[in-house]
Design a protein that fits this description.
The chain has about 200 residues and is α+β, with helices and mostly antiparallel strands. It has helices spanning about 35-45, 80-90, 95-100, 110-120, 130-135, 190-200, and strands at about 5-10, 15, 55-60, 100-105, 110, 165, 175. It has one domain. It is globular, with a radius of gyration of 16 Å.
Length: about 200
């Protein structure tokens, strides 16, 4: 069947299911720029979950004794229907296109506007993988719908369990920008180069 994921607030012991936004639950079924479930998680981190420890938790993950078991077991919360409709109907993805994702544990940040300009595509249609699920996910490579890119990439899951927050337009000082280090993709370097050649117009 594969591993199912949801967005989890570790401190508040709350979670949001992909089905809330009409999405499927395997990580590679929703973890891309423009996806409304990921945008909902970004919205939570900009509001009621701001500064809390966070994980993109899978149901195959090991038990975490420090936090009373698998993060995936955190109870699901209800999301206001008006917010769901606003994100779904209006395709509200501004936070994922131009916002800032902050790790308050490591004092690192991702500039989403820059990320969208430099991230490698993950398929021939130039879809980009979203950094939030990949940075905060529990173990990958355990199921057919998991991320099967470079699992040796130290950034995969590096922010899992850290305190995160999102700002729509506030560039904070004192954070290390790691945007240039993120190369999440399921394509090989040769495949990426071939696609980039097709996208780059001849001079």
């Amino acid at each position: 069947m594969g591993q199912y994921f949801k967005a989890c607030n570790i401190d508040k012991k709350e979670s949001v299911l992909p089905h809330t936004m009409g999405n499927m639950a395997k990580v590679m079924e929703h973890s891309y720029i423009g996806n409304n479930f990921v945008e909902l998680a970004m919205f939570q981190l900009a509001n009621s979950w701001k500064g809390d420890r966070f994980a993109w938790a899978g149901d195959y993950a090991d038990e975490n004794e420090e936090d009373d078991g698998n993060y995936y077991n955190a109870p699901e919360i209800s999301i206001d229907d008006l917010l769901v409709d606003k994100i779904k109907d209006n395709n509200q993805t501004a936070l994922s296109l131009t916002g800032f994702l902050y790790n308050e544990t490591t004092m690192e940040m991702v500039d989403l506007k820059k990320y969208n300009q430099i991230a490698p595509p993950t398929d021939e249609d130039f879809w980009l993988l979203h950094p939030l699920p990949l940075l905060t996910c529990t173990e990958q490579g355990l199921g057919g719908g998991d991320y099967h890119g470079d699992l040796d990439d130290p950034r995969v899951g590096a922010w899992m369990g850290h305190a995160l927050s999102v700002e729509a337009d506030v560039l904070r000082s004192g954070y290390k920008d790691i945007t240039d280090t993120l190369r999440f993709t399921t394509l090989s370097a040769d495949e990426i180069a071939e696609l980039e050649d097709k996208r780059t117009p001849d001079v």
